[in-house]
Automatic annotation (TrEMBL):
<dbReference type="Pfam" id="PF06094">
    <property type="entry name" value="GGACT"/>
</dbReference>
<dbReference type="InterPro" id="IPR036568">
    <property type="entry name" value="GGCT-like_sf"/>
</dbReference>
<protein>
    <recommendedName>
        <fullName>Putative gamma-glutamylcyclotransferase</fullName>
    </recommendedName>
</protein>
<dbReference type="InterPro" id="IPR013024">
    <property type="entry name" value="GGCT-like"/>
</dbReference>
<dbReference type="GO" id="GO:0016740">
    <property type="term" value="F:transferase activity"/>
</dbReference>
<dbReference type="InterPro" id="IPR009288">
    <property type="entry name" value="AIG2-like_dom"/>
</dbReference>
<feature type="domain" description="Gamma-glutamylcyclotransferase AIG2-like">
    <location>
        <begin position="50"/>
        <end position="141"/>
    </location>
</feature>
<keyword id="KW-0808">Transferase</keyword>
<dbReference type="InterPro" id="IPR045038">
    <property type="entry name" value="AIG2-like"/>
</dbReference>
<comment type="similarity">
    <text>Belongs to the gamma-glutamylcyclotransferase family.</text>
</comment>
Amino acid sequence: EFVPISIVRLAEKNLSSFSMAPTLGIDATLPQYRLATMPIPHQDQYPVSYFFYGTLAVPEKLRQVLELEDEPVLSPAEIRRGRKLRWGKYPALVDGAEGNVVRGWTYVVETREHEDRLRSYETNKYEVVRCEIWSGGSQIPGLTFRF
């Protein structure tokens, strides 16, 4: 009996430990973005804040993807240096200018298992990148999915 096999390629996550790369809206090779300290979040840092701007910002969808029993708690947030476009019927975040602002939600991802579920949901059409999340009057170093 034939059983089809579905292969899902995860969204790439390759955070540099010695530069800001990859960061939304910033070319980390430029001298003004060179760092004296290790950038955060780190590749394997948990918990880690994520910025969502599309279907993952819907609590029920996020609950399904993460296989949570309870509804997840999201907080209103925004990021800068990004622009939201459409990829078919889905929103897609791309690099933007310093003045560009995208509104959405932030959520704290507690484990690598949960992050891998998010990366599987977004597939290899997206890349995990660093971003500065603004929420509740605070600036939080976090991650998001860039198209």
